[in-house]
Amino acid sequence: MAVSSELVKELRNMTGAGILDCKKALEETDGDLGKAVEVLQKRNQAVAVKKMDREAKDGKVAALVSPDGRLGVLAEVNSETDFVARADDFVAFVGQVCEHVAKAAPASVDAAYEQVFSADPSKTLKQAMTDVVGRVGENLRVRRFERYETAGKIVTYIHGGGRIGVIVEVTADKPEAVGTEDFASLCKEAYLQVAAMSPICVSRADLPSDVVAKQKEIAMAQLGDISRKPPQIQEKILEGKLGKWYSEACLLEQTYIRDDAKKFQDVVAETSKKLGATVTVKRFARYGLGEGL
Length: 293
Fold this sequence. Notes:
The protein contains 11 helices and 8 strands. Among the domains are: 27 residues, no CATH class; 93 residues, 2-Layer Sandwich (Tetrahydropterin Synthase, Chain A), CATH 3.30.479.20. The strands form 3 sheets. A 3-stranded antiparallel beta sheet has the order 1-2-3. It has a 3-stranded antiparallel beta sheet with strand order 4-5-8, covered by helices on one side. The chain has a two-stranded antiparallel ribbon with strand order 6-7. The longest helix has 19 residues. The protein is α+β, with helices and mostly antiparallel strands and 293 residues long.
C-alpha cells in the first residue's frame, strides 16, 4: 500500500529510525503504526546481535550535575568509531544514560541495563541501547559510570569533546562556605589538576595496601642491591623512592599545575584559611576514553 509522508514522519518521531526504514516498515505492515514499531525493534535487535562481538573502543565521556550541585554523574559510553561518537543519536543516548544513572542510581552497569530506562519507561536501558545500535549500525556499550551525592559540591569537567572526563566531590565543615567564590574556585582547580595530572587517589590513606606493597617491590628492584647498607639507610633510600611515586599518585601531594612551588594540598589549605572552614577534597574519578581497552 502507499504510505503517506505524514505517517512516515510520525513513525520516525516515535522511533528515531531513518525515513527509508520507517517507510519500509509501514509498507510491510499496511500502515499499522504499532506493528511497524515492532518491525523496527526486531530489525534493530537483529543488527545488534550481529555487531555484539565487534570491539567498541571509541565513544564519549559525558557528565551531568544537578542544579544545586549536590548530585553528579560521570559516564563512558563506547562506540566503534569516532564518526558514530559524533552522531546525534549517539550523543543523545549518552546524555540519557547520564540522566538515567542520576535518577535510578544503579549499582553497576549490568544492573543499569536491566532497569526501566528513565528516558523511555516502555524499555529497559539495554533495549533502548539495542535500538540505537540498529540505527547507527555499530556496537555500543555502557562501559562505566560514577554517581556522587554530597552535602558539599559535585563538579565535573569534560575535555577534548569527551575524550577525558573528571568528577570531584569537595566538602566544607561550614555549609555557608560551599556557596562562596573561593570554594567554587578550588573546585575548578581540583578538576583541572585531576584532568592534567592523572592522580590515582586523594591522599596516601586512600591507597590500597596491595598497591603500596607492589610499588615497594618495584622500588626495591629499581634500587638494586642495597643490602650492605645499614637498615636505617635502606629505609631512608626506599622512602625517598616511594616519596616520588606518592607525589605523582596522590592528588594532595602533586605539584600544583599553576605554581610548581606549591603542592595541591597547599592550595586546599589556603582556601580553608580564607573561608575559615576546613575544606576537603573527598573523592574524584578521571576517565580517559578507551583507556585500558
